[in-house]
TrEMBL record:
Belongs to the short-chain dehydrogenases/reductases (SDR) family. GO terms for molecular function: 2,3-dihydroxy-2,3-dihydro-p-cumate dehydrogenase activity. Pfam families: adh_short_C2. InterPro entries: NAD(P)-bd_dom_sf (IPR036291), Sc_DH/Rdtase_CS (IPR020904), SDR (IPR050259), SDR_fam (IPR002347). PANTHER family: 3-OXOACYL-(ACYL-CARRIER-PROTEIN) REDUCTASE, 3-OXOACYL-[ACYL-CARRIER-PROTEIN] REDUCTASE FABG. It catalyses: (2R,3S)-2,3-dihydroxy-2,3-dihydro-p-cumate + NAD(+) = 2,3-dihydroxy-p-cumate + NADH + H(+). It comes from Pseudomonas nabeulensis. Pathway: Aromatic compound metabolism; p-cumate degradation; acetaldehyde and pyruvate from p-cumate: step 2/7. This is 2,3-dihydroxy-2,3-dihydro-p-cumate dehydrogenase. Keywords: Oxidoreductase.
Length: 249
C-alpha cells in the first residue's frame, strides 16, 4: 500500500486503531479521525513511532456534514487524493428498544449511519475521478442473527449494509469497490468493560458464537486489510461476516 492514503474513522482505539495499524504496516499513509481528541493524538503518535509512514489526525463529530468537509479538506491539503476510506466510527446505545429515548435513538443512528453517509459522500468523488478506490464499512453481524437489546443499533448498521450493496451496484464499473465487514463481539476494551459490568448479558452475546469466544481485533483488521488491497478488485457489494460462525450462509 506504499503511496496510498487511507482515511480511518473511529481510529483512536479498538477496532479502528487495529485497522489503522494494519494499514500502516502495509505502508499506507493515514488520516485518522475520532471524537476523542487525546486518544486520537495518542494513536497518531504510536503509529508514527512504529511505522515509517505519514499520519495526521483530524478530530471531530463525523455525523456532521461540516466536520466531514473539514476532514476531506485537510486530507486533500496534506496528501492529495485518498484511495481508501474505512468507515469505522460508530458506537451504539445498547438497551431494550422501549428503554431508548429520542436522544439515544438519534445518537445511535448518527454515530453508525450518518458518519458513513457523510464520509462516503465526501471522498467518493475523488475516487471516481481517479478511477480507483476502496470503501470499507464496519457493519454488525447482529443485523443478520439478531441480538438482545440491539434493535436500534441494528437499524443503523442495517442501513450501512444496504448502502454497501446500493453503491456497489451504482458504481460497479468505476474502479471503486464497496464492502462491509460485519464482526460479532470483538475483544475491545469496551467489551471487556461490558463483561465486567454486565456479565450475564455479555455471556449471552458470547454464547451465540459457536467458537465460544469473541473475535480478536486483528482478526477483523485482517479482513479489512484484504478488502483495501488492489487484489480485492472483484469483490464488491459484500457484507462479510467475521463472526466465529454466529451466522452462517
Amino acid at each position: 500500500m506504499a503511496g496510498q492514503v487511507a482515511v480511518v474513522t473511529g481510529a483512536a482505539r479498538g477496532i479502528g486503531f487495529g485497522i489503522a495499524r494494519r494499514l500502516a504496516a502495509s505502508g499506507a499513509d493515514l488520516v485518522l479521525s475520532d471524537l476523542d481528541v487525546d486518544a486520537l493524538l495518542g494513536a497518531e503518535h504510536a503509529l508514527k513511532e512504529e511505522f515509517p509512514v505519514s499520519v495526521i489526525s483530524c478530530p471531530g463529530d463525523l455525523s456532521r456534514e461540516d466536520v466531514v468537509a473539514q476532514l476531506q479538506t485537510q486530507s486533500r491539503e496534506r496528501f492529495g487524493k485518498v484511495q481508501i476510506l474505512i468507515n469505522c466510527a460508530g458506537g451504539g446505545v445498547i438497551r431494550p428498544f422501549l428503554d431508548h429515548t429520542a436522544e439515544t435513538l438519534k445518537a445511535t443512528v448518527d454515530r453508525n449511519l450518518w458518519t458513513v453517509l457523510w464520509c462516503t459522500r465526501a471522498f467518493l468523488p475523488e475516487m471516481l475521478e481517479a478511477g480507483y478506490g476502496r470503501v470499507i464499512n464496519l457493519g454488525a453481524d447482529s443485523v443478520r442473527n439478531g441480538l438482545w437489546d440491539h434493535a436500534a443499533y441494528n437499524a443503523a448498521k442495517g442501513g450501512v449494509h444496504a448502502l454497501t450493496s446500493g453503491l456497489a451496484r451504482e458504481f460497479a464499473t468505476s474502479g471503486v469497490t464497496f464492502n462491509t465487514v460485519a464482526p460479532c463481539a470483538v475483544a475491545t476494551p469496551q467489551l471487556i468493560h461490558f463483561i465486567e459490568t454486565q456479565p450475564d448479558l455479555a455471556q449471552r452475546f458470547i454464547d451465540v458464537i459457536p467458537m465460544g469466544r469473541a473475535a480478536e481485533i486483528d482478526e477483523v483488521a485482517s479482513m479489512v486489510h484484504y478488502l483495501a488491497l488492489p487484489e480485492s478488485s472483484f469483490v464488491t457489494g459484500q457484507v462479510i461476516s467475521v463472526n466465529g460462525g454466529s451466522s452462517m450462509q
